[in-house]
Amino acid sequence: MASITLTNIIKRYGAGKSANQVIHGVNAEIADGEFVVIVGPSGCGKSTLLRMVAGLEEVSGGEIAIGNRVVNDLEPSERDIAMVFQNYALYPHMTVFDNMAYGLKIAKVPKDEIRARVDKAAKILEIGPFLNRKPRELSGGQRQRVAMGRAIVRQPQVFLFDEPLSNLDAKLRAQTRLEIQKLHRELGITSLFVTHDQVEAMTLAQRMMVMNAGVMEQFGTPEEVYNRPASTFVAAFMGSPPMNLLKSAPDAPPDTIVGVRPEHLDITPSGWALTVEAVEMLGAERLTYGRWLHGQADELVIVRTEEACAAPELGQTLCVTPRPGKIHHFDAATGKRKDLGA
Ligand SMILES: Nc1ncnc2c1ncn2[C@@H]1O[C@H](COP(=O)(O)OP(=O)(O)OP(=O)(O)O)[C@@H](O)[C@H]1O
Question: Could you say which residues form the signal peptide (predicted)?
Answer without folding.
Answer: none
